[in-house]
């Protein structure tokens, strides 16, 4: 496929225009043309990337590549007074919407309850991708991909989007001026407008992420708490762990003893928004649970770990993993009166102000899993 782009405008002859032409020999400033070869016929591709500096013709080429397809705007036509959970595929399946949000890395549940206009730039970008996935056009062209967001969110967001998009049969062409997303996006083909060159992905691999795990004081929870979807008392007798990439805290988990039943209990799993969507949370959870199973925690106890969640995508991930087995599932939580009394008595015994909160009594579809460590994830 050969793309020929030719643009022209009025050849202005004002005094200043004439002077510019005279000074800089710019006689053809009113015309622009570009020729590009796209050997994609018969190529089994799902993600293409047109990358290059601003003004190098990316948008024009994208329009010419699929003349009958309009450029998709991730930020357009959002209702002003509806949370994004209602604005995305309003007539569609609820699980599809939550699945798409989590898949593109917008797993920060409180953000689902906010209208698009109040979300951060990174959240708006991911919400737009989730809406696109639910609308599911067969061919899409997206301009300014990752252009207005933080570069860390851009790289991880590109990887999360690509991972999810490849599950469909649709095709998308992304237009971007940023080269730093290429390794994370892993497109099937790339056209570089700076070099006027088309090339296949070949053996391009996503960069590895080195996640270091530390045991930390419970005070570190305050850094992650704004991104947790429940407001509960501190877990009893918990130890706290964070995963860090370099000096940046990325994930959090608390682990409590349940030695009377021969278990540990993991809770408060949080992944910072800019790192969601690429599997960091599950990998972190698995590693902390593995360390406990191998006795590298309290008094060398080699116990399995129980973990409960109502997040549908996390439930699906654990259910598919050979390292976990599902042990429970219920719609309505238990009466929290017993929990309140227990926590109150414990506070009084320690000479503290009695607690007013407790666990249970919610209407979340909670599912329970046990980390057994068996098998290998694929």
Please characterize this protein's 3D structure.
The chain starts with a strand and ends in a 7-residue tail after the last strand. The chain folds into 3 domains: 1-37, no CATH class; 39-200, Rossmann fold (3-Layer(aba) Sandwich), CATH 3.40.50.300; 212-371, 3-Layer(aba) Sandwich (Aminopeptidase). The longest helix has 15 residues, at 121-135. Helix 4 (94-103) packs across helix 6 and helix 6 (121-135) packs parallel to helix 7 (151-165). The model has no long low-confidence stretch (mean pLDDT 87). With 378 residues, it is α/β, with parallel strands linked by helices. The chain has 12 helices and 15 strands. Strand 11 and strand 12 (263-271) form a beta hairpin.
Write a brief structural summary.
This protein has 378 residues and is an alpha/beta fold.
Residues in β-strands, percent: 15-25%
What's the CATH first level of the largest domain?
Alpha Beta
Helix content: 25-40%
CATH superfamily of the largest domain: P-loop containing nucleotide triphosphate hydrolases
Give the domain tally.
Answer: 3
Please give the CATH architecture of the largest domain: 3-Layer(aba) Sandwich
Number of beta-strand segments: 15
Poorly predicted regions:
none
Strand order of the largest sheet: 9-10-11-12-13-15-14
Task: Give the C-alpha Rg.
Answer: 26 Å
Which whole number gives the mean pLDDT?
A: 87
Order of helices and strands: EHEEHEHHHHEHEHEEEHEEEHEHEHE
Separation, N- and C-terminal Cα atoms:
37 Å
